Amino acid sequence: MTSYTARSVFATLPTTTRGQPLVLGGDPKGKNFLYTCGNSVIIRDIENPAIADIYTEHAKPVIVAKYSPSGFYIASGDASGKIRIWDTVNKEHILKNEYQPIGGPIKDLAWSSDSQKIVVGGDGREKFGHVFTADSGNSVGEITGHSKSINSVDFRTQRPFRIVTASEDQSLVFLEGPPFKFSKTLNDHSNFVNAVRFSPDGEIFISGGADGKALIYDGKTADRKGELGPPAHKGGIYGLNFSKDGRQLLTVSGDKTAKIWDVEKCSIVSEFVFGNAVDNMQLGCLWQGNHLLTVSLSGYINYLDVNNPSRPLRIIKGHNKPITAMCVSEDRQTIYTASSDSRIYILFGNSDEVTGKGHTNQVQDINYVSDKLISIGMDDTLRITHNNQFSSDSNNLPSQPQAIDTLPDGTSVIACLNHVVVAQNGMQTYSQQLKYEACSVSIHPGGTTVAVGGQNNKIQLYTLRNGTLSDGKVIPFSGTPLDLKYSPDGAYLAVAGGDRNVAAFRLPEYEEIFKDTFHTARVNCVAWNPSSTRFATGSLDSGAIVWDPAAPRMKNYTIMKNIHRMAQITRIAWISDNTLVTTGQDNNVKVWNIKF
C-alpha cells in the first residue's frame, strides 16, 4: 500500500504592492510569525522559517492575519470583507467563526487584550471599519469620522480602552469605549496615514504616514506629544512596531530604509539601508523578541542585525508569483524553480535567486545539464545560466517557446508554438516550422528520438540526427498532450492530457498499456522517478497521482488529493525514488516522502 507524508515546504513570500503597507502578525508566544499571499495565510517559525504551515480556506485573497493575544486563535481578513477566526492548536485549523464586518477589502485588524473583541479597517462600501465580539459577531461600536479607506487600526491594551484608526483621508480617528464611539479627529499628517500602533503599556500611540512623518500621541487622550525625526523618513512610512518594553520603535519606509528609534528621546538608534533598487522599498515590519523583521517590495523577508546595520542577519528569498517551471540538478540535491514574474530560484536549505539580466517575461521551462541551467521564456528567448548567474547572451527563438528537453551532451529540443528548434549548449542550430501548435517535448534517453505533443491531439515523433529533425510516427491522443516524458531507462513514454487522461506507452512499438482519468481536471505535468519504476502527474484538480506502469490495471495508481489546496499543480519532479516535489499556482514548493 502506497502512502505519502509531507516532508518540507518552501513557502511563498508575502504578496506586495508598491505604495501599499504590508502587515505582519506575531505569535504572542514568540514562536511564529504570519503573513498573507493570495488566498493563503502563511505561518512560519521565526527561528527556523523553513518550518511553515499554510492556511487556505479563504475564497478571496487574504490581506491581513493576526494572532489573538491568547495565542489560541488567528483572525484573517480578505478582499471581500470576510473575517475568518480559526484555531491554532489543531493541525486542521478548525473554523470558530466567520463574519462579514464590512463590504470590501479588510486592510488591518486588531484584537483586544482579552481576545474578546476585534476591530477591522478597510475599504467597505458603506463603512470603513467595525468593532465586534469574536464569539458572536455582535457590534461593540461604530467606526466613524473617515471619508476614505482605513489603512491601519489598533486597540489600546489597558483601561480605559481606546481604538485608533489611520486613513487615506490623511487623518487619524480616536475612539473611546466600549461601546466604542468617535472621540476626535487628528489632522496632523499631510498625506495618507499608513500605520498606527499603541505602545505595549498603552501610554502612547505613534502614526506613520506617506508624508514620512512619525507622530507621537498620548494613549489616553490622543493629545499630540511629539515627532520622531523630523521627519522620520525621506519617503512614506509603511509600517511601525514597538519593542516589547516600548522604549524603542522600528519603522520602515519607501525610502528603502528601516530605522530603530529611541521613543523617549525621539532620536535614531540604528538605520538599515537596503540598496537603491525599487525592490528595496520596505513595506512592513515586525519586532518579536530578539527578531526584527522587515519585508521588501520584492517580497524578501529581512532579519535585521542590530549589531551590524549594514547587512541583514538573514534574507528569506523565494517566489510570490505562480511557479511555472521546475527542474532538479543532476545529483538531485538542488531544486530550481521559475515563476511568472521571470525570476529563477535555487532551493537547497536557504533559497537564493539567479542573478544578472535574465528573462523579461514568464519563464516557461527550465533544464539543468552539466552545471548549466537552460531556460526558455515568453520573451521568446533561450538563456543559459552559469554559477547561478545569467549569461549576457540570449538566443531569440522563432516563435513562443512552450517546453524544452536537454540531453547530457547539451543538445536541447524546444517545442515552440509554431516551430520545433534544436540548440546546442544554448545556441540555436536548427529550426523546423510546424503545421500544428506544439505544447510539450521529450527526448528519448538514447538521443535519437524526440516526442512533441501538439494542440492537434497528436504526438509527433521525430528522428534526431546530426542536429536536425526528420518526421516519424504519429500517435493519436484523446486530448492535448500538455506534458510527456520518456522514462530514464527509455522503456516507456508517459503522457499528461488536457482531457484528464493519463497514458503510458511501452516502447519500441509505442503500445498503449493504459489510459485512465482518475484526475478530475486537466493534467498539467508528468515526471518519472530515477529508476523508471513509477511516474507522477500533477493536475488542475490540486492533486497528484503516482502511477506504476507494471502493476495490474486499477491497482497501478495512488491519489495524493488536494496537496496544493485551492491551487493547481504546475510542475512535478522526483529527487529520489521515494521523494516527490510539487509546485503550485499558490507559489509553494512542497516535498513529499512516498512509501511503497
TrEMBL record:
It holds the Pfam family WD40. It comes from the Eukaryota. GO terms for molecular function: actin filament binding. SUPFAM superfamilies: WD40 repeat-like (SSF50978). PANTHER family: WD REPEAT-CONTAINING PROTEIN 1, WD-REPEATCONTAINING PROTEIN WDR1. Keywords: Actin-binding, Cytoplasm, Repeat, WD repeat. GO terms for cellular component: cortical actin cytoskeleton. PROSITE patterns: WD_REPEATS_1 (PS00678), WD_REPEATS_2 (PS50082), WD_REPEATS_REGION (PS50294). WD repeats lie at residues 55-96, 186-218, 230-271, 516-548, 569-596. Belongs to the WD repeat AIP1 family. It is found in: Cytoplasm. One of its GO terms (biological process) is actin filament depolymerization. This is Actin-interacting protein 1.
